[in-house]
Amino acid sequence: MIPDNVPEENVFYGSGDLKKESHVPSFDKYKELYLKSIDNPDEFWGAVAKDFFWKSKPTGPFLSYNFDVTKGEIFIKCMEGASTNICYNLLDRNVHERKLGDRVAFYWEGNEPGDESSVTYRELLQRVCRFANVLRSQGVKKGDRVSIYMPMVIELVVAMLACVRIGAVHSIVFAGFSAESLCERIMDSQCLLLITADGFYRGDKLINLKHLADEALQKCRDKGFPIKRCIVLKHLSKEPEESVDSHSPPAKRSCPDLQVPWNPEVDLCWHALISEASDECEPEWCNSEDPLFILYTSGSTGKPKGVVHTVSGYMLYTATTFKLVFDHQPDDVYWCTADIGWITGHSYITYGPLANGATSVLFEGLPTYPDVSRMWEIVDKYHVTKFYTAPTAIRLLMKSGSEPVQKFKRESLKVLGTVGEPINPEAWHWYYNVVGEKRCPIVDTFWQTETGGHVLTPLPAATPMKPGSATFPFFGVVPAILNESGEELEGPSEGYLVFKQPWPGVMRTVYGNHQRFESIYFKKFPGYYVTGDGCRRDKDGYYWITGRMDDMLNVSGHLLSTAEVESALVEHRAVAEAAVVGRPHPIKGESLYCFVTLKDGVGYSQTLEAELKKQVREKIGAIATPDYIQNAPGLPKTRSGKIMRRVLRKIACNEKDLGDTSTLADSSVVDELFQNRCCASV
Ligand code: WTA
User: Fold this and answer.
1) Which residues form the AMP-dependent synthetase/ligase domain (predicted)?
2) What are the pocket residues of ligand 1 if the criterion is a CB atom closer than 6 Å to any ligand atom?
């Protein structure tokens, strides 16, 4: 499956020399290790596991599983019988065993330039222990779910690791999600407690986070699910004397519009609680397959699914992928620009880097604030060596040309990474030539919330790169391409991307709904994990992701289900029916193009359009705000009444060649929609 020889022409390498120190210095070494990881996973992962602390050893094989629904329940188990604690491995082990206590774990760079702090491994351990004691004193126990809705601050990492230390299961909700989305997620996982903050700035925009959290808690109460406790971090309203350590921001950030409603029956102040807590906190030893966290991702039916990851496999997999894909070295300064509210932030800001004792940048702000040079300014400021971002950010910055990049030196950079969506070759070349000055390999990492870590990816010193291809599988991962009838295709081919066996970090279930887990990922092709992505394999064996095969859209690297947006639209009293499709967008990858059929007697207006956009923003969050809304008196349907999205996609893109429309019930609808399409380009 891995080619014997990789092509020598039309491929790229970084011209910088990583090989001398690299963990995987050649393609041959990659191949050798890959075969070992497949033929003898016990030995391959056993060697990895030796670096970690285990309270008790596993009692069975490294991995056991069933991927075939026709043979019984789907399950994946890794290192059964072993017990450990990830927080202990990320912090105590690094401080005490590896003597990294004085190493900086995070350089925190605030939204506003100049607002900065840092935390060492020793300080992080102390802060996590204190907060873990706070959680225990609030009655949080092993297995309880805790919801976290916070900006990108060090305390977010503290909150998540404090949960992990006491065996509680964190469910982080991205702080850009709406109150409604937060409520839905709190209720689905039956969280005991919410941790949030007063507010934060995104660029020059103030987000009154506590206000949104309160709204969510009220909605939970209205639905019969009262949350008793909400811990609130004063991030914007913190006074200097409340600083918990010398690295805290120097002065109160000025924000006259900050609203921090306070309900003394529910709300507790983070700072007051930790000031009384002890620095000592015995970790809760967890079994390998105990749940570690829940993270919600869009489901194609509209209801988000709570992806569950478990302790040991996720720890080993994120640690190993981080180490090898970014070729981590002790003097690195690593920076992943994702938000911790997404899986990229979970695996590659918190778990993978800390497991390796890495020093990272934790950035609160935006790539364009105060200007489009901010990223490169930060790279120079901290001497960032490994940099990981999303194609949408690259395209956004590319629009401003090379000058804002070249104002800064970027000499420290060694490896560049991308994640979240296919990277178009133009953006790839710009990243490679301008940002990395042909010196830095680009690791185009394909993976999903569900996969826990990278599954298709180059290794920086080993894999010849082709712009736009995620290249080859990571260790332990066995991909295949299937046709519609479920047959495995050999050689150059295109079809459904599936995986034939588990790797340690793959998800274990959908929280509270194992049946949904089986039916989404395993039913279509028994015996395989189905990614939902299309994929092409070229003559050299390289894998190229071609995009989603289901009703999911990828807007700025975030997956959204069309059904989720449609249901937010039809909840508006004026809307009878809605259909949402993706339209290619030069920066966001895809934009949301919505067709709405109004109820009889309702007229379409600008005011209504603004209301509908607001409605979607409030139901889901700003990331789902429609780019276009078209009044559609009728929608193209088959004779059996199914909306023909394929036709709507053509209308959104103004492509007149509709292909086969013989099943269309009324073709005049299509002409009318073409005439009235939203043609402005965004
Ligand atoms: C897409 C993000 C092409 C893909 C880590 C996948 C990619 C979905 C890439 C998962 C990539 C992610 N090339 N497509 N390098 N990385 N995707 O769960 O469609 O937010 O299924 O996880 O993003 O998105 P999720």
Assistant:
1) 98-509
2) 297, 342-344, 419-422, 444-449, 470, 531-533, 545, 548, 554, 559
